[in-house]
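Exercise 7. Predict the joint structure of the components listed below.
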Amino acid sequence: MLDVRGLQKVYEGSGRRVEAVRDLTFTVDAGELVCLVGPSGCGKTTLLKCMGGLLAPTSGEVLLEGRKVSGPPPGMAFVFQEYGRSLFPWMRVGENVELPLKQKDLSKARRRELVRDALESVGLADAVGAYPWQLSGGMQQRVAIARALAYEPRVLLMDEPFAAVDAQTRADLEDLVRGLWRKRGITILFVTHDIDEAVYLGERVIVLSASPTVVREQLKVDLPAERDQLHTRVDPRFAELRTHVYEQIQAAKRGPEPRGPKSSVQ
Amino acid sequence: MIGRLLLRLFFVVALPVVLVAVWWAASDGSTDPFWPPLRTILDTFPDVWTADQLRTDVVPSLLRLLGGYATAAVAGVALGTVIGSYRRVRAVCEPVLEFLRAVPPPVLVPVITLFAGIGDTMKIVVIASGCVWPILLNTVEGVRAVDSVMLETARSYGVTGIARLRHLVLRSASPQIFAGLRQALSIGIILMVISEMFTADNGIGFTVVQFQRSFAIPDMWTGILVLGLLGFLLSVVFQLVERRVLGWYHGLRATTRRS
Amino acid sequence: MRGGNVALGATGLAAFLALGEAVPRLGLVKEAYFPPTSRIAVALANEVSDSAFWSALGDTLTGWALGLAIAVCAGVVAGVVVSVVPYLREATASTIEFLRPIPSVALIPLAVLLYGTELKSVLLLVVYASFWQVLIQTLYGVQDVDPVAEETARSYGLGTWARVRHVLWPTALPYVMTGVRLAAAVALILAITAELVIGAPGLGRQIAVAQTSQAVPEMYALIVVAGLLGLLINVGARTVERRALAWHQSVRGEVAV
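Solution:
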C-alpha cells in the first residue's frame, strides 16, 4: 500500500546543512494501523510530510499503491497536531469538513451525506453549525478527524494528533481512532512520541532512531484486536512491549546504532 | 432588566443632550456673525438641504466616493495579494510602496487635475489613488501572515488555486484587509471633500465652500453638520459590514482573551 | 538574506525611477503632465537651494509638530480622565463614537472664517484629526489593565494618582505609542491639506502655487519632498514606538479601530 524506500531529507539553508532523515525504508500494508515512534526531534514530522507529498525528499521515494508520490495524493488525508491552526476559524464545523470535498467532483447531496456521516462517526453531529473555536481542544481534533474521514482516504496520516490535548480526552480519542480503523478498514500511519500510545494503538510499531533518522526496529504488537483502556493497559504483554520499546528509545537517544536497521518479532 | 436598559439608554443620550443644550444656550442671542445661534442653524437646515439639494449635491459626492473607494478596494486587494504571496516581489516593491504610502494623499489633487481635468473622473481617480495604499499594504501584511499549518492543510487536501485564494488566503487576511479599508474610508472622505473644494460645480465640499465664500454663515454651518452626519453614517455602515464579515474573528479573539 | 532583501529593494527603487524617466521620454504620457525623473531631480535641486522652500518646509513642520503635540497631550489626558472617573467612560462613549468619524475637513470653511490663512487654521484641522487617534488608543490601553494588578494596587492602599502612575500608565503606554504613530501620519495629511486648500503657508501652498503657475516639475519635486517627509515621520514614529516598547514584555498587536 505504502512503500518508503531509502528516504533521505537534508535541509540546506544559510550555509548550514542538517540531515533530518538519513535512510528510511519500510512498508505499510493495506488496512494496517502502524505507529511510528521515536525520540523527540527525530524527524518524525519531516518523514510524514515527505510521505504526504508536502515536502520533496532529497533522495529516495515514497510509493502509494505503487505510484510515486510527488505532491499531495488524492487518496491520502492528513491530521495535524496543531488542530487550532489546521481548522479554518472563519468556517463553521460543517464547512470545514466540506471544503476538501468541494475540490472533488461530488454532488451537493453526496457532500452533505459525507459530512453528516463523518461528523456522526466522531460523535459531533450536533456541532455542524458551531465555529471550531467554540469547541474544546479534543472536539476540535475530532472535527479534524472527521474532515479526514469525509475525504474518504485510503491512507490516513496522523502527526502526533493528540499531543496537545489532556490525558482524559486523549484516551477517548485513541479509542475513537482504533474504532474507526476497525470499522472503516482504512490504512493508518500514526506518528507519536508517546510509547504507551504507540503500543496501545498499533498493530505494528516502527521505532525510529534519533536524528539523522533510520528505522531502528519494527515490532509486531501481538495484543488482541479488541482493546480497551482499562484491560489492555494492565495486560502483562502490554507491559513487556512497552518496556521493550522504551529501552529501544532510550538506546536511540544515547546514540545511533552502527549496525543499521534490524527487524525482529519478539 | 428594564432598569439596566434604561440606565444604558441614559448613558447613551445624556451627554449629547447636555452638549446640544449647552450649545443652544451659549449661542442663543449670539450676535457674532461666525457663531450664529443653534436655533438659526436648525431653522436654516430644512431650507438648505431639500430633497433637490440632496440629489444635486450629496448623491454625486457619494457616487464619486463609492466609485473611487471600490476601485481602490479591488485594486488594493488584488495587488496586495500578488505582492504578499511572493517574497521576492515583496522585497522589490517594499521601498517604493513605503514611499508612495507616505505621500500625503491630498497632494494628489493637483497632480491628477493635470491628467484628468476637473471632472468626475479626476475626483474618482483622486479618491482611488489615495485610498489604495492602506488597503494594499494591509493586504500584503495579511496575506504574508497566513498560518503555515493552514497552508499545509489546504495543500494536503487538494485545496489549490482559486479555492485556496477564496477560502483560505483572503479569509485569513480579512482582518488586516478590513483595518486597511477602514483607514481608507476616512482618507476617501477627506479626498472627496477637498477635491470638490478645489474644483467642482457640485458636491457637498463645493457647496459648503460656496456658502462660506458668500458669507451665508448659517448655511455653511448646516453644511458642516451634513458632512459630520455623513462621516458618522458611513462609519456606522462600515461597522455593520465589518461585524458581519469578521464575526468569526471577534469571536475567536474573545475566546483566546478569556483563556 | 537581509542583504539580499536590501539589494532587491534597491533594484525596485531603481526600476521605479527608471520607469519615471522612460514613460514620458517614450511619449506614453505627455511630458507637460509628467516630467521625467531627471527633470524632477533638477527642479528639486533648484528648490533645495531656494530659501523660500526651506521656510515653507519649516512652516509645515511647525504646524505638524505643534498640532500633534497638542493632540497627544489632550488625547492622553482626556483618555485617562475618562477612564479613571467612574461612569465617565459609559457617559462619553456615544459622544465619542459620534464625533470621531466626523471628517476634520468639514471644519475647513469654519477655519477659513475664523483664522484665515494663519497657523491656527492648520492647528484646528490637525488637532481635531489626530486627537481621536490618541484618545481611542489610550482608552483601549486603559481597558487592557490587568484587574489583578489593579486590585493589588488598591489593596496596598495606593491612591488614584499612584495607581495611574504605576499601574495604568505602564499598561496603556504601548497603546498610546501606537496612537501617536497613527496620529503623526494623520497630522501630516491634515497639515498639507490645510495649506493646499486654505492657503496657509507651507509645502501644500507651494504645491498649489506651482500647479496654478504651470511649474509642473517644481510641483512634482515638492510632492517628492512631501512624500519623503511622510516617510521620515512613519519610520521615525515606528522607531520611537519600538524603542519605547523594548522594555515591555509583550509588544501587543495593533488595535483595529
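Discussion. Chain B has a mean pLDDT of 90.
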